[in-house]
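By way of example, what follows is a protein record of this kind.
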Amino acid sequence: MRIGIIGAGWLGGTVGGAWAKGGHDVLFSSRRPDKLAAMVRELGPHASAGTPAEAAAFGEVVLIATPYGELEKIGHDLGGALQGKIVLDACNPYPPDPEPFRREIEKAGVAISTAKYFPGARLVRAFSAVDATSVEASAAGRGAKLGVPLASNDENALRVAEQLVRDAGCEPVVVGDLAAARSFQRGGPGFRANTSAPALRRRLGMPADGL
């Protein structure tokens, strides 16, 4: 697939790197694309660099892994380019986001709040509850495969996200719709669990085999 990465930091770079190594065409973005030259050169022919607008236009799927406070501007600037596309939201409200803002977002539900910034996009809450180091270890085959919780109101987008989680060397755990993503936002039992899929399902009160 063609995948755009908006926010090519630790998490976005790690997940996108696993996809590029696996054969997906991945465009990593930054306001200064030249700063990504060394990374994309190391990842090989399936990796490239550009601006956030270029990533939004390029990707059939777009992973957003930026500070949460940037989402409103991203939605305003790039929402048109993301219409109808699968958007994987990996963002969490953290400092320097003001505490009242963080409390408001978490009370409403982080996934529900993100969806308001991207009307018309096929939003999936993905890679938001795991650490980049755990993704990297799972992709490298060190230990059990990492369980990555997913939630969306779009069943077909979920199926694509599930496959992309597998392509990153991890195991998907579908929790439910966007409202259900509350269980793996900060304060929920699935947040930063960084464990196997069966153990994650147990933490979330789901059958360990996923059935």
